[in-house]
Design goal:
There is one protein chain. The chain is mostly helical. It is 47% helix and 0% strand. Helix 1 runs parallel beside helix 2 (25-32). It is globular and about 50 Å long. The termini are far apart.
Length: 85
């Protein structure tokens, strides 16, 4: 499984993951695993949350990754946030 955020149209991003975005962890996994690729379709994707701002979207993505621990997620970049108390 994989959790990722996007501000693009859902169907566009799904097509990219399945066919054209060579940097996508999903694309890489599918092209290295024939069994998964043969079963992959747009039905394998879903929207699990939404946010009204890019900042909130990043927060929600991080929380869902923390909670669900998806196999294909590898955080390469982190946004350092300071808490003001």
């Amino acid at each position: 499984s994989y959790i990722g955020e996007t501000n693009r149209h859902f169907s566009t991003r799904v097509r990219e993951h399945l066919a054209t975005d060579q940097a996508s962890p999903i694309f890489k996994h599918l092209n290295s695993n024939h069994r998964c690729k043969s079963m992959a379709s747009s039905q394998c994707f879903e929207i699990i949350d939404y946010a009204e701002t890019p900042f909130l979207l990043k927060i929600k993505e991080a929380l869902h990754i923390l909670w669900d621990k998806p196999v294909l997620n590898q955080q390469v970049e982190h946004v350092n946030l300071e808490l003001f108390l």
